[in-house]
Every structure is written in C-alpha cells, then in structure tokens.
Amino acid sequence: MSKADQMLAILWLIKSHKQITAKQLAEKLEIHIRTVYRYIDALCASGVPIISDSGHHGGYRLLGQFNEAPLVFDLDEQKALIHAASFALEAGYPFGEKLNQAVAKLKLYTNQTQLAQIHLHEQGLDVISPQADAAEASFLQEVEVAVAQRITLSMHYQKGYGTVAETRHLDPYGLVCWKSKWYVVGHCHLRKEIRSFRVDRIREMSRTDMTFERPTDFSARQFILAGVLPDSDKPGELISVKITGREQALDDLCGHWFLSHALVERSQYEAHFQVQEKAIHTHLPYQLLSYGGTIQVKEPQMLIKMLREITLNLHQHYLLMPID
C-alpha cells in the first residue's frame, strides 16, 4: 500500500478499536513499528486528535467527537459521489487520474454489501460529453493550479480558426465548463480588462514570476453568463422576437438555456422573447434553423432577413457541389 493508504488504514484501525497499541497496528498492517510511529506523528501534525496513553494498558485512541465522526459514507452518499465523479470525468475534469484513485479508494474501504449496490447504481448511469485531448487536459491542470496560487500565465492564444496565435499574459481568476467547453476567465494584460479564453484554443502556456490579487467576490461563472444572457437591466437594448409554430417545438425552444431567460409571454402556438440585437446577428438564426418548418418567425424583419440570407447561402453552396 502507498503511504496515504497505510495512514488511512491506521486511522481506520484506531477508530475501530477502543484502544490499540503500535505493535498491534504494525502486526495488522505488516509494517515496521517505527513506520507506525512516523505515520501517527504525521496524522497528528495534520490535525487528527490521536491520544497516546502510556502504561501496561496503554495505546492509541481518538479524542472525543472525532471518534464519532464517520470516516466512511453511507450507500446514498457513496452513490452520489461516484455519480458526480462520472459527470466530472466526462466533462474533462483536469485531475481525472486522482479522481479515479479516490473512487477506487472509496470502493476499497466499503463493505461487500454496499459495494455490490454501488456497482448496480454505477452501471445504471452514463454521461456522454466531448472529451478534452491530452494537451487541453494538461493546460487545464496548469490553469487550475495558477488560479489557486495566484500566478500570472503567459500563453499563445488562437482567437479563431485560421488566425495567428497571439501572446497574452493572463491573471487567471477561475475555470468554467460551459456547454462542453472549458473557459479560463481573468484579467488580460493586453486588453487591460477581464476576458474569457477557450482552453482548447491555447497553443502554449507557461508560468511567469508575477503574481496577482483576485478581486473580492469575483465569480467566473457569473462573468460567462453575463456575456450570453439577456441584460434585463437594459430593456431599451432588447429586441422583440415573436415565433409561432407547433406546440412541441415551442416547448423545446422555450426550454433552451438562452431563450428561457428571454421569454416574455407564451401561448399554445406562439412565444414572445426579448433578445439582444447581437444575438440576432450571431447564434440565434442558426439555432432557429435547426427547427426547420416546425416554427415560423413573425418578427423582427432583421431576423427574417438573416434567416433568408443564411439559407440562400447554404443553398448556393450545396447547389454548386458535384453529386456522383
């Protein structure tokens, strides 16, 4: 067993007995008694309240409430942790190897009845999401550590396909997983403002000797959401969008992560939204095209023109392609 596993085993044995000697611990774990002393010293240094009683009936025991605190989880807690690990791993969690080790350790120290139930629940839930490649996973680890240690990063960042990578210095404030993509949010030294960067577009990354102070109560999550959701505090900048169509299609449309926040009024066959003009010129037309003829845009005219332009361009593009 590794050092961490042996220390956990010692703690478990002390908890499981009213009192136990170093010799008994050494015999049960088949390690040298001096190793037991070192591990107990390390546990005490980490804050575990281990009491050592001397004398003929002496030994080690845990102090008060710590002895009553659970060192294991019940079945529902174990199931929840393993299911959560499945989501994290599929989302490209940067420390997946350590997470797998933690799950394996959780299974190792549970009883056989719980383990059988865990396997049944584990088989009943799957998560499907695009996986990060090895380079992106490495960058995610670097960024997460830099966020925690307040270290400024130097990176070569490619803004879009076909563009040349630019050198940026970034004070990383946080990582966000948004719609199967990872973003690092922080202060960009080049633009002198807070920006978000897609981790999969980072080509090179290294630490600098500079450090920074993270703004108090800053939320990377809220920063990302503020850039994509309608700003209800500025109603004058919002444009009315009315869409009719089949009830099921409108149900799905109104439940979308973006349009659900922009919904103003809904009847059986019509939905009224208020969206920012920027959305009409970027992602909204493409989102609506995926519904085909099940919906119809009634207003505004600029959105109808955008839909016409996009569909005509697609028509021309594929019309000119040879067909065997």
TrEMBL record:
Gene3D superfamilies: Winged helix-like DNA-binding domain superfamily/Winged helix DNA-binding domain. Residues 9-61 form the Helix-turn-helix type domain. InterPro entries: CBASS_pafABC_assoc_protein (IPR051534), HTH_11 (IPR013196), WH-like_DNA-bd_sf (IPR036388), WH_DNA-bd_sf (IPR036390), WYL_dom (IPR026881). It comes from the Bacteria. It holds the Pfam family HTH_11. SUPFAM superfamilies: Winged helix' DNA-binding domain. Residues 139-205 form the WYL domain. PROSITE patterns: WYL. This is WYL domain-containing protein. It comes from Paenibacillus silvestris.
